[in-house]
Amino acid sequence: MHPQKIKIYNGKIITPFKIIENGCVLIIGDTITEVSEKNIEISGAIEIDAKGKYVAPGFIDIHVHGGGGCDFMDATETAFLTIAETHARHGTTAMLPTTLTSTKELLLQTLDAFESANKKNVNGAQLLGMHLEGPYISMNQIGAQDPRFIRNPNPDEYKEILSKYSCIKRWSAAPELKGAIEFGRYLKTKNILPAIAHTDAIYEEVFEAFNNGYTLITHLYSAMSGVTRRNAYRYAGVIESAYIIDEMDVEIIADGIHLPSPLLKLAYKIKGPHKIALITDAMRAAGTNASESILGDVSNGLKVIIEDGVAKLPDRSAFAGSIATANRLVRTMITMADVSLIDAIKMITYTPARILNIADKKGSIEIDKDADIIIFDENINIETTIIKGKICYSKFASG
Question: What domains can be seen in the chain, in order of their start residue?
Fold first, then answer.
C-alpha cells in the first residue's frame, strides 16, 4: 500500500527566515518531501488550495494543563484525548501535557493515563511527553498550586517515579530548595529538562541552577521573584537572572492578560525570538464558552470564574490560569508586542522544538521533517491542521 500524498499549493509558506509567496509543499506519508516556490506536478495527491492563506509549521505548546472542558489531572484517557483534539483545532500539533502539584497517587494515575492515551491519540496534537510542574516549589510562590502537597525534592520519591515512567520529558522546580541542585543534575542524566518555576530564588541561586542543568524559566514573570531587599541590600531575582544569563531560555504566557504589552515587548527586546517559547499554560476552559470552571482535577480542583479572556479566583483577587489557545498567542505577540509574523511563529514552533531537542524533526517546514503543518488566515484563525501527514482538522470538512 502506497503512503498518502498531500499537496498544499497557492500558500504563503512561513519559513524561519522568509515567507514564500505562492509556495507549494508536498507531503508523502508523515514527512515533508518538497518545499517549492512554484507548483509541484504530482499525480494521486490530495490537493489543498491554501487560497493565498498562510502555511506554517504546527504550533508546539510545551506547557499546557487542559482544554475542551478537561484537565490532564483528571487522569483519564478521555481527558488526554479531548485536550489534544481541542488544541489541534487551534493549530497545536504537539504538546507537553503538564501536571499540577497533587498527591503522589494522583500523579501516578496521570502518568498512567498519558501512556494509555498516547497509544490511542489519532486526531489530536501529539503528546511529546509529560511536564511535571511541582511539587518541589516555593511555598511563597505557589500561585494556584495546592499548598498541601508542596515539599522539597526527595531522591527516593523522584528516582522511583523516573524508574517507572519514561514519558517524563521536563520537570519544573524551585532551585533554591534543599536538594534541588542534585535533583536537576539527576534529571539531566535521564535526558529530562529541569526548569525553574514557582520560585523565590535570587541571582546567585539561579546561576548555580543554570550551571547544573536548569536552562529554562517556566512562565517568566508569573510566580517568581524580582528584585528583593534583605536587610537593606538589594538582590536580583529570577526575572532579572533570566535577562542576565544570555543562554537561558524562557517561556511566556502570551495571552495578552498575564503579561501586559510593555512586558511582552521587554521580554522580546532582551531575549529575542530564539530564546522565547510562547505557551498557553491553558486550563480546562480553553476552547470552551464556559463562565465557570475548575482548576485542577475535576473532583478536588479549585472553582474559578472565566471572564475577560482569563480564569480568575471567584473573588477576582488573582488569575487562576489561562484559557488561551496557541493561535491567540501568535495574534497577541503581533498586535501587542509589535513582533513580526515570522518571529511570532518562530517562538511557538522552532524555538520550543529546539528547547525540547526535537528541532531535527519538528518546528519548521523543511524537507525530511515531520509533516506537522497548519493553514491560517491573516487573523491567525486556523483553517486546517495536519499532524504527521494526517488531516486532523479542516474548517471545511463535511460531516
Answer: 5-56+364-394 (2.30.40.10), 59-355 (3.20.20.140)
